[in-house]
Amino acid sequence: MKNIILIGFMGCGKTSVGGKLSRAFGWRFLDTDQLLEEEFGCTISEFFDREGEEEFRCRETQLLKRLCSEPEEMIVSTGGGMPLRTENAALLKQLGTVFYLKASEEATIARLAGDTTRPLLAGDGREEKIRRLLGERAPKYAAASDYIIETDGKSFYEIIHEVEKVMRRKKAGPGA
Ligand code: S3P
Questions:
Q1: Neighbouring-strand partners of residue 30
Q2: Over residues 93-114, mean pLDDT
Q3: What number of helices (H) and strands (E) belong to the chain?
């Protein structure tokens, strides 16, 4: 489908890049965390407390299935855990071209310092949690993506430009 999907670890800039891509392409912007919070009527942290992570993951999968029947030309930024279920990874590829926004451990730790909105990082030992989760997840993000964009040291403009280049090449077709 003709959509752009952004995946990657918490704090890698999916939502910010997604908003800017939406303006650059003139496509509508959807953020799965925002959609789920609207559906839940509470924050993701509150939902985790009330219903638990497993229920959150089920709701992510249901949302992804619904998005597959939406009109095309969407920019979709996803929660950091979205591509981890095998079923979701397949649905993401079905939904569009998947870009993994890859940030280094150091950049991720710096970006998430002081964050209070991510239930998986709540409590002590945040840095350790980030290192462990990132180590476990990075290969899965790579496997779930069509393209990897290294984001360290790049401006939003440069990241958007890389996505545009890929999409132009795809539009021109093989051999272009
Ligand atoms: C999660 C990432 C969050 C949100 C939830 C779980 C994860 O989204 O979906 O807290 O498992 O990595 P962001 O990647 O937008 O922070």
A1: 76
A2: 96
A3: 8, 5
Regarding predicted confidence, which is higher, 35 or 114? 35
* Residue owning the nearest CA to atom 10 of ligand 1: 118
* Positive or negative: CA dihedral 18, 46, 145, 105: positive
The yes-or-no verdict on residue 171 having pLDDT over 90 is: no
The pLDDT, as a whole number, for residue 42 is 98
Q: Does the pTM of the predicted model rise above 0.90? A: yes
Ligand 1 neighbours, Cβ below 6 Å, are 10, 14, 33, 44, 79-81, 118-120
Mutate-to-test residue for ligand 1 from 6, 7, 9, 10, highest number of ligand atoms within 8 A of CB: 10
Strands (E), 28-169: 28-31, 74-77, 97-102, 147-150
Can you read off the two tokens belonging to residue 15?
Answer: 């939502």
